[in-house]
Fold:
Amino acid sequence: MRVLIVEDDEALAEQMRQSLVDTGYSVDHAADGEDGHFLGDTEPYDAVILDLGLPVMDGASILKRWRSDGKEMPVLILTARDGWTDKVEGLDAGADDYLTKPFVMEELLARLRALIRRSVGQSSPQFSCGPVLLDTRNGRVSVDGRAIKLTAQEFKLLSYLMHHEGKVVSRTELTEHIYDQDFDRDSNTIEVFVNRIRKKLDVPIIATVRGLGYRLEWQEGQK
Ligand code: CA
Structure:
């Protein structure tokens, strides 16, 4: 899952970025409204954390532009003041949730998880596919209750597929959602990751769809 942080407070942005990276997200950061708007407009994010008070272009204006351009990614706004008008303006501009500064990082992470899973129509924080269970709260993956150790990149890839069960996901899409913009991307490595995940899970839940990509699904009776 890939997240954009638009926040001009460098210390707070770095703190959020680090927490998100540590919990298995790829993260891009923009420090002003113009860069933030551009990134959200051109890159596919699974969620955006958007400060309302920003240089160059304010958060509510960015959000209104994204929404009028048809961008539907979940957006969590950060409000500096505790007045209710900012929250109402932000929510009415198209925000899905808000947090008032200062906040505890755990709450931000929990709200983000909820936004991302709701955006794909899932209400539980645990994703399952056949015997495979992925818990977004702690990053744990298990097969029939047996814990599986995945690398950070393998986890990101499996998590994206689990969030899009039953859909064909191309290598390009996977590349865009598991790497941040500074990463030297190579869609050939996706195949390597998929094969490693298959080996570690040892149950056939990731099917190759020739010429198109991969599809995560479990068919009863598969072995
Ligand atoms: Ca600010």
About this structure: The first helix runs from residue 10 to 22. The chain has a mean pLDDT of 94.
